[in-house]
Design brief:
Structural class: mainly alpha
Helix content: 40-55%
Number of strands: 3
Radius of gyration: 23 Å
CATH architecture of the largest domain: Orthogonal Bundle
Strand content: 5-15%
CATH superfamily of the largest domain: Intergrase catalytic core
Strand order of the largest sheet: 1-2-3
Largest sheet: 3 strands, antiparallel
Number of domains: 2
CATH class of the largest domain: Mainly Alpha
Mean pLDDT: 86
Length: 271
Amino acid sequence: MNTGISAHTTVTELVDIWLKQLRAQGRLENTTINEYERVLRKLVVPGLGDFHLHELTTERIDTLLAELATQSVNRQRKAKVVIGAMLDVAALCGAVATNPVRGSMSVRRPKPETRELTLAELESVRKAVNAWMGKERPGPKASSDMADVIDLMVATGLRIGEVLALRWSDVDLDAGRLAISGTVKTESGKGTYRKTLANTRTVVLAEFAVGLLERRRHLVPDNANDAVLPTRNGTWHQVNNVERRWRQIRSEAGLEWLTPHDFRHNARREA
């Protein structure tokens, strides 16, 4: 099968061919392919895009990775993983004798440090969220759901997308339990939607989380999605919007060290 990939193909041309192949194969989610494209076009193409495949060497790959390391280890790691996968295809086509990424510098992702938050720190987080929500700012009024999203993460250990995907049909307030069966995804051309997880699991709720959900049950209008945390229009919140709002909150409150993973790490603490 003629893939159009040869030793004289440029890296930019290979990016276009590879992404087109991935989308045609349909084995990966669009969100994954879109992330590959973002990494390649923003991190790889500016440094290597004009090189032909026969010009790629491990030294050139190392130069790119070393430059990305000065920006962020996360960027360096993502670039190495994605360009490595792409050049595996070039190697299979015979466009490169061996994949030059495979002998490049190792990238070590630092293990995130997590610790148990104190009750005082959790209270500081709530005050920071409330202060942020109460600020006058241009544009639409800030979402009032941020405090509940964070409290539910602390109470359950769920990821942001799983919290946003909660439906009232998943909630058993009498038993104090949640059925975790979905997560929220956003894709170009498809919008924001709820994806059903392969396996459903059950989470036992702390008393304060039961009270939070009882309050929301009385205050939140019915919506077509049966969402516990709907937008004003009754649609699903986007994960990246919640992440962006949290970055704003923690920056304004001097809580840069605190990530959503830290909330999950403190799951099931009474607050």
